[in-house]
Structure formats: structure tokens, C-alpha cells
Amino acid sequence: PRPERSGPAMRLASVLAALRPALPLLLGLSLGCSLSLLRASWSHGGAEEPCGAAAGWNGAPEAVAAGLGPGREEFRPRIVPYYRDPSKTHKKVLRTRYIQTELGFHERLFVAVLTSRATLNTLAVAVNKTVAHHFPRLLYFTGLRSAKLPPGMALVAHGDERPTWLMYETVRYIHQHFGPDYDWFYVMQDDTYAQAEQIRALVTHLSINQDVYLGRAEEFIAGDEQARYCHGGFGYLLSRSLLLKLRPHLDSCRNEILSVRPDEWLGRCIIDFLGITCVSQLQGQHYHTYELAKNTEPEKEEEEEFQAALAVHPVSDVTLMYRLHKRFSRIQLDKAYREIQDLQMQIRNLTSLTPAGEAGLTWPVGINAPFLPKSRFEVISWDYFTEQHLFSCPDGSPKCELSGASKADVGEIIESALEQLNSRYQPLLRFSKRQLLNGYRRFDPTRGMEYTLDLLLEAVTQKGHSHVLAKRVSLVRPLSKVEIIPMPYVTEATRVQLVLPLTVQDLDYVANFLDMFAMNALDTHDNALLTLLLIYHPYDAQRVSQVDVFAGVKAMVGELEKRYAEVKIPWISVKTEVPSQVKLMDIVSKKHPVDTLFFLASVWTEINMEFLNRCRMNAISNWQVFFPVHFQEFNPALVYRSEQTASSGTDFLRDGHFDRHSFAEACFYNSDYMTARTKLAADILDQDDVLESMEVFDVFLHYSGLHLFRAVEPGLVQKYALRSCNPRLSEELYHRCVLSNLEGLGSRSHLAMALFEQEQANST
In which compartments does the protein localize (predicted)? Predict the structure, then answer.
């Protein structure tokens, strides 16, 4: 028999059993503490010896410290401690408009073009049309401006045609207005053709920490053999540091240096006062130029020097400027095609080494693979088309005429398909199109627009024999480089003027609108005001002294004004049988300043601060108007049926859809509306009946050159309500209103379930 354990032994065994899971943790803590103490004793033991005296370091700390000497002080991070003087009043910190201003970033390149009154409307315009859109900022400088200024060109006139004086004033103007904002300054003449993309690529490879005077170096006449100036006809590049150092000496250069040529004068000024000469090569980058001879044919120039040139001079006339631009564009395009072919060949060679092997190679090579849907709801549908008709129309009709951009797109795709076929099979076969049998296209957001064409072709052999055959081809128009469109600066501090039209049919929803406005705008002190448009029917307007149909609305407004003493909610009474949106907006526009930001709302709109801020950001004066697509809730009687409605829940995603048929909500500036309305008035003359068939959206669409931003707005939610469609409006407006009511009932699944339950009830 096993002897029984005593009481203390049993207790010790139970304690050890309980601590056994924690033993690794305790051992790790003890080992870590021991190592840390041991390391601390080592570090304190050699504290009396200097850090650099250790033989194993070989002076490395000194080398690192020497690399961050006084000359490179600007690259060392510095932490500036915050200190607030208690004796001084605290002032609010004013933040800059853009974060790059606050961080001290500069724009990359500024371009100055020297022109004259004689060539302003010829060569300067040609420069503007060929290269201006490739430079971030381009400015033209002239002595005297002509009577007629070209549109779309920023021009500075100095008032004197003397070349040296023009150069002096130009450099001084650039330093004064753009010196702190740009890293590089490129100066060229209007008889120079510059490859804009190559110039921009050049400055990205140069260090901004040096004084740079880069161009085509030329010798001075009877001057120092070592000194060089940059020839003005081929353009030259100045760094910001050089420009800042040159500015104090410009007046001395103007008074002391005499020269007929402005480029020689500037070169002599830089050499005499800064000791910097012009160079054609810097930091491994070459400034290639090409001098054009008389009667040069750019299309026949095949020299390597010509194709590598960043600047070409002299350009004698406008036609030659455009021919040069076409020639260099073709050179760059061919270079891009060669690079694409090389990359595709590398991809093919590397694909065999991947786990997927040759099966992983997508078509076209280098383009993303087609989107693979995970369910039937993610399948991207194909649109069928012929050369005359499109069978997927924007208005929802099954068939419409192929026109506009779609027609041009189809024609270009067919032409590209024939070009690719001929390039592949010539000279054995030559193809020509007989007919487009079938055409399919779809937009894949992962790669671009895809096309599948069934072409009826006539193939002609080298001996002249012809044969008709049908061939299917697939093409892809890939998504190109994404561009950021510059937009004017706007803020969220702009006051929004809400305009709410009300009819007798809207009285049941006014209380909810005012409650939401008070909770989300007035309680939060948002910079928003409200104006009511009370639309009286002529019959109700005659009886307003006895029975005012809007008496309840006026009482609610009075209660709001009592609750918020600083708030005034005006109303405007209008008598009409047909409440045209344009006519109502005409009345409101005349009663507000031109810089007012309007938000044209509807009584079912739930106002919130999130949307008001987006209204401020998306509506830009003289640039863009915003027409949001609100989220419309479905009919709760169909969506929930016998279930309990959960609309009151804050985290419940309410069933509904974005109502694309409604254009009732809009954000725009009064000045933009007045401009478009003036053009509309000149077009229709006194035909006011036309206004009944138009909305504010139509006014901006047809009579303004502004951007119309139409997008879904999840922050603009409307609860379900059956709208009353006025039959006195135009047929299109009435049809859109009816469609909005029908599509707002429920989704297809909701309607199908309701019909199923109704049939089940009828059968029983």
C-alpha cells in the first residue's frame, strides 16, 4: 500500500500545481531583469572613457557628426518646444490654406516667356497652344502690349521695349512675385520650341541645394575664355537660390553693365557678382539643344541631336512651331511604344518563373486582369451596339440612335481594329471593312473599356484575290494616368441660404422639416439661414383674409423665432397655379446678394451638418454647381409589412434607393444663377410659358459653362412620401415625378413578396 502524504506536503504540492502554468513567465521575468542589470553594469563601467576612444568604433561617430555640419543644418530635424507666455493674451492660430504652405513646400517649376508686341498674337499664341498646358505655371512678359490681347494667356507688360530693360524688369518681377514659391525658373523666348515634358523631367533630377545656371553655354565677344553665358534663344534654367542671391545686385547690373543682348547682360551680371558661369551639363544631366537651319523640314529630321533636343531655335513662323510640336510628339509616342514593347517582353519572360506559369499571363500584357465577380450581383453587363444604334440607352429605353461621343468611340475602335489586323497580316493580306455585325462593350473599373467586335471583312491577297470572312476581335482601351484636376479654393465657413418651397400638399411634412432644421442647424449654431416660399393657389389667395392655409406654418415659424432670439425666418408669399421652379427661384434671387450660396431644398429633406458642409465644398462660384441625388426610403408598408418598423434605430440601414429622377435639391451661387438666367432670358425673349417646362438644372445645363456635379449624397435622406405630381407641368417633369413615386414604393424583391402574399391571400 502507498503511504499517505502528510498535510503540509499536500498543501505544497497543490501550490506547485497551481503555479506550474506561470513558471515560464516567472523565469522569463527573472532572466530579463538579470540581463538588464548586467547590461547596465557594463555601460556604467566604461563611462569614464570618451565615446570616440574605443578602438572598435574607428571614429565612426565623428564621421556621422561631420556629415551634419553647419552647411547642412537645414536637413537636421529640430523640435521647437511650445511655450505660452501667461502675461500675453492668447491669440487664435491662423492655419494656412494648404498643408504644403505650412510645411514650407515649394512648387516645382515656373516658366517665363519673353515676347513682344509684334509677335504676341502669333508666336506667343503658338507657344501657348503647344506647351503651356504641360507647365504648372506659365507667364508672358512683354514691353508694350498690343491692342487685342489673346484669350487665356497671363501677360505682364513693363512699358518699355528695350531688350535689356525687359530682362531686368522680368527678373525683378519673378523674384518679387514668385521667388519664395518655386524651386526652378525657366526663361525662354517665343521663337523657341521647348519640349515641356523633358524640361519638367530635367528639374526633377537636379538638386535644389545648388546655384544653377543651366542652358546652352556661349562665349562672350572679346571676353574671358572661361566665362560663359546661356543663350536666350534656347532657354535657360535658374535655381531659386541663385535668384535670391542675384536680386540685391540687379540695380547695380542695370547701371554698370552695358549690353545690347539681354541674355549676355544677364550672364555678365551673374558672373560678375556671383561668380557663376553658364553650364550645359550638371549633376549628370545634359541640356541638349538644336539650332534650326533655314528651310528645315522637321518631318525629315532624323539626327540624334535633333531627337534628343530639349529646346529648338530659331522658330521663324507659327506653322513651323506646330510642325515641330507634331514631330516631337511623334518621337515621344514612338519612344513610349518601344518602352511598352520592352516591358511586355520582360513580363512574358518573367511569367514563366511565377507559380502560375504561362497561365498567369493576362491579355493585354501589362494590363490588369479582368474583374472576376464573386456573385451574380457583381457581374458587369455588356452593352450591345451596331454602327447605327445603341441598345443600352441612358434614359432607359431599349434602343436609341448612336450619336455624339458614343458614335465617335465606336468609329475609332473599328478603325483601330482594322489597323491592328493589317499591321499583323500585311503584306500577305489586306483587310477592309464591309460591315459591323455585332458590337459589345463594357467598362471594367479595374482596367478600362473592353470591346468585342464581330466584323465582316474583305481580305485581299498579294495576287489580288479577295475573300469575305467574319472575324471576332477583342480590344481594350486601358485606363490612362490619373490626373488631378485643379479646383478653386473653398472653405466650410460660407453661409448657406436654404430655400424651401411649400404648397398646400406639403403641410403635413413642414413640422418635421423645421424640427430637423432646428436640431441640426440652429442648435449647433451652423452658419445656415432659412427662407420659406409659401405658394398659394389663386383660390386660396383670395380667401387668405378669412382662412389662411399657411397659418399653421407661420405659427411654427413664430415659435422658432421665440426659441432662438437671434434667428429670423422670413417667408415670401407667391400666387400661382403652376409652381415653376425657375419662376420661384427668380423671386428669391432678386431678394438676396449676388454672393449668396443657395441650397434649394424640399420639404421631405432631413437637414444635417454633414451635408451642408458638402454643399459648401461642392458648389464653387463661377466654376461648379452641385445637384445631389438624395436617398429615398421605400414605403414601410411594403418593406416591413407585418414586421415592426426599425426606422427609429440609429444604426439601422434604412431600405431605400437613390432617386435619380429628382432634381429638386441643388446648391449654387446666386451670381451663377443670375448669369445663366440672363442668357436664358435673351434666348426665350418674352415666352414665359417655356419656364414651366424647365427646372433650375436645365438652366445651368443649357445656359452656363459651369461644371454640373451630379452625385449620390448619402447624407441627404428623405422619408417615404407619396408626392403629388402637378399635371399642369411639362410632360417630362410630370413623367419624372410619376417614375419617382413608382420606384420609391420598394425594390423588386419587396414588390415580388407583396404580390406573392396577395396571391396567397386571394387563393385562400
Answer: Golgi apparatus, Golgi stack membrane
DSSP one-letter code for 727: T
In the chain, the amino acid numbered 168 is Y
Give yes or no for a contact between 194 and 112, defined as CB atoms under 8 angstroms apart. no
In 3-state terms, the chain is what percent helix, strand and coil (to 5)?
40, 20, 40
Beta strands in 362-465, from DSSP E residues, in sequence order: 383-385, 389-390, 400-401, 429-444, 448-461
In the predicted structure, residue 5 carries a pLDDT above the cut 60? no
| Cross-strand bridge partners of residue 711 | 628
Dump the DSSP string for 510-535.
HHHHHHHHIIIIITTT-SEEEEEEEE
Cβ–Cβ < 8 Å for 610, 715: yes
Question: Helices (H), strands (E): how many in the chain?
Answer: 23, 27
With cell 535658374, the residue in question is 238
Query: CA triplet 647, 648, 652: central angle to 5 degrees?
Result: 60
- Over residues 207-231, the mean pLDDT reads 85
| CA–CA gap between residue 370 and residue 555 (Å, rounded) | 61
Instruction: Say if CB 657 and CB 743 are below 8 A apart.
Output: yes
User: Within this chain, do residues 284 and 201 fall inside the same structural domain, yes or no?
Assistant: yes
Using left for φ > 0, alpha for ψ between -120 and 50, and beta otherwise, residue 404 falls in: left
Lookup: cell for 743? 420606384
The pLDDT of 468-475, averaged and rounded, is 93
Query: Is 136 a domain residue?
Result: yes
Phi, psi (degrees; rounded to nearest 5) at 626:
-120, 125
Q: Which helix (H) or strand (E) holds 468?
A: strand 466-478
Looking at residue 429, its amino acid is L
Q: Is 401 left (phi over 0), alpha (psi -120 to 50) or beta?
A: beta
Residue 221 included in any domain: yes
User: Which residues span the domain enclosing 167?
Assistant: 101-327
CA distance 631 to 716: 6
Tell me if 184 sits within 8 A of 216, measured CB to CB. no
Domain annotation covers residue 358:
no
Check whether residue 419 and residue 279 sit in a common domain: no
415 SS3 class? helix
- CA dist., res. 384 & res. 413, Å (int): 14
pLDDT digits (tens, 9 = 90+) for 350-386: 888 888 888 778 888 888 888 889 888 889 999 999 9
pLDDT at 654 over 60: no
Report which of 708, 680, 710 is spatially closest to residue 693, judged by C-alpha positions: 680
Domain count, the chain: 3
Element (H, E) at 21: none
The pLDDT tens digits of the residues spanning 671-707 come to 999 999 999 988 877 777 778 778 899 999 999 989 9
Which one has a higher pLDDT value, 395 or 495?
495
In this structure, are residues 574 and 584 in contact, taking their beta carbons and an 8 Å threshold? Answer: yes
Q: 738 and 706: one domain?
A: yes
DSSP string, 162-194: -HHHHHHHHHHHHHHHHTTTEEEEEEEETT-EE
Residue type, 702: H
Element holding 422 (H helix, E strand): helix 404-425
Alpha helix ranges (H) inside 240-388: 240-246, 250-256, 262-274, 304-307, 318-351
- pTM strictly above 0.70: no
Strand (E) or helix (H) holding 17: helix 7-19
